[in-house]
Specification:
The protein is of the alpha+beta class and about 80 residues long. The protein is about 15% helix and about 20% strand. The protein is globular.
């Protein structure tokens, strides 16, 4: 999978109501994109509310933490 093709805000592919928080995985490469997912204040992502593409991106970011993506942080949602 080409990391440049991944959506910067995977949260836009969610069918759930907008969340007040997002879990953001920063890209560790200069050309990659960060990935963000709706979450609660503790950083818990409700995977059943994600689209298939967002769910796959979330699992990818978790699997590649420390390699392609940095440790995630919980931020106030931009939407």
């Amino acid at each position: 999978m080409n990391h440049e093709d991944t959506a910067m805000h995977a949260a836009h592919h969610s069918s759930a109501a907008p969340s007040a928080f997002e879990l953001r995985f920063p890209s560790l490469s200069g050309t990659g994109c960060a990935l963000s997912f709706p979450c609660d204040a503790n950083g818990s992502v409700h995977m059943d509310s994600l689209s298939e593409r967002a769910r796959n991106n979330y699992l990818l970011a978790r699997a590649l933490m420390g390699r392609d993506y940095g440790w995630p942080s919980v931020l106030a949602s931009q939407t």
